[in-house]
Write a structure and sequence with these properties.
Layout (H helix, E strand, L loop, with lengths): L5 H20 L8 H13 L4 H8 L3 H13 L3 E6 L2 E9 L1 H22 L4 H19 L2
Antiparallel strand pairs: 1-2
């Protein structure tokens, strides 16, 4: 593995944060917080889930996810339902409105990214997209 210096790591982290900020500005719903978006995406990908599982997927605490779920529930983007595996527990499920909001947000962010990618040569676009797959691997722990 090549040696990664602190300056290289810092430059990469700052670039990631700047890209995320740029994409956030493209969202149709500026009030949606990153944790809320991650929860919606996790529910879309994995289906109804308990708060603990969502906290693991979002890499944050259960209280943080609980607050995000409350806000999403108030906006009718998610709903709570009984867990069929354990009648004492509840799961969080994505509503049709939540799915629509997630798709709308993802499209807006993707459009902003496509505009930025269009300024790069094709080989750099390929490398950026490959980096996205590698980042997914790092965050998913696969």
């Amino acid at each position: 593995m090549p040696e990664v210096g602190e300056d290289d790591a810092l430059e990469f982290v700052v670039a990631l944060h700047r890209l995320v900020r740029l994409l956030r500005r493209a969202r149709p719903e500026p009030g949606m917080r990153p944790t809320q978006l991650i929860v919606l995406a996790a529910l879309h990908q994995y289906g109804p889930s308990r708060v603990g599982a969502l906290a693991e997927l979002a890499a944050c605490t259960q209280p943080t996810v609980t607050a995000a779920v409350r806000q999403l529930e108030a906006a009718r983007l998610v709903r709570r339902e009984p867990d069929p595996a354990d009648g004492r527990a509840t799961r969080v499920a994505l509503t049709a409105q939540g799915r629509s909001e997630l798709v709308r947000t993802a499209r807006a962010e993707a459009e902003a990214l496509v505009l930025r990618l269009a300024t790069l040569p094709p080989e750099d676009v390929r490398r950026v997209l490959e980096t996205g797959r590698l980042l997914r691997h790092l965050t998913d722990g696969d």
